[in-house]
Amino acid sequence: MIDDNYYQSIYAGTKKFNQDDIQTANATGFGAAADDYAERGIDLNEQLIMNKPATFFFRMNGDAMQEAGIYPGDILIVDRSIKVASGKIVVASVNGDLVVRYFKQTMNKLWLEPANSRLGNLALEEFTEYRPWGIVTCVVHLLDPVLKTFNTPRKHKK
Questions:
Q1: 1-35: per-residue pLDDT in tens?
Q2: Helices (H), ranges, the chain
Q3: DSSP 8-state class, residue 152
Q4: Domain segments of the chain: what residues?
Q5: H helices of 7-144, where?
Q6: CATH annotation of 52-150
Q7: Quick check: 117 and 104 in contact, CB under 8 A?
Q8: Over the stretch 8-17, which tens digit does the pLDDT of each residue have?
Q9: Rounded to an integer, what distance in angstroms lies between the CA atom of residue 156 and that of residue 158?
Q10: Of 116, 105, 118, 128, which is closest to residue 60 (Cα–Cα)?
C-alpha cells in the first residue's frame, strides 16, 4: 500500500484569537471601560481564502466579465484547488493567452463564455490548447479614487 501524503497550510488564521489576547495599556492600574467590549478585527485572509497555498491574486486586465461585476483593474482571488465545473468563473490558458470567462459544458461541448455581450464564446475544440488555471472565488473592486490611484501599477524606470 502506498502512503498518501496530505498537505495543509501552516497559516491557521485568527479563529483561535480571543479577548484575553488583546494587549491593553494599564498605566494607572485601571483598565479602560471599553476593554470588556473590544472585539477582534476581521481577518480578510480568514474570510476570503479557503486554501492559502493554492490561492493567487490577479489583476483583471480587460472588460470580458464586466456584466458579471468584474471590471478592468479589479483584483481577482483565484483558488487552484477548486475543480472546474460548468458555470464557474475560470482563469484559463487558451492557446497561450490567460483569459477569465465562465466555463460552460454540455454533454459533448465545452466553451468559455464572456460576460460581455459584444464578445463571443471561445469554443474548446479538439485542437484548442486549453488549460484551466484556477477558479475565481472573490473580486476586490476598489471604489475610492485615491485607493485606485494608490493601487495603479507603476512602471519601473530602467
A1: 455 555 555 555 565 655 565 555 555 556 666 66
A2: 44-48, 145-150
A3: S
A4: 52-150
A5: 44-48
A6: 2.10.109.10
A7: no
A8: 555 555 656 5
A9: 6
A10: 116
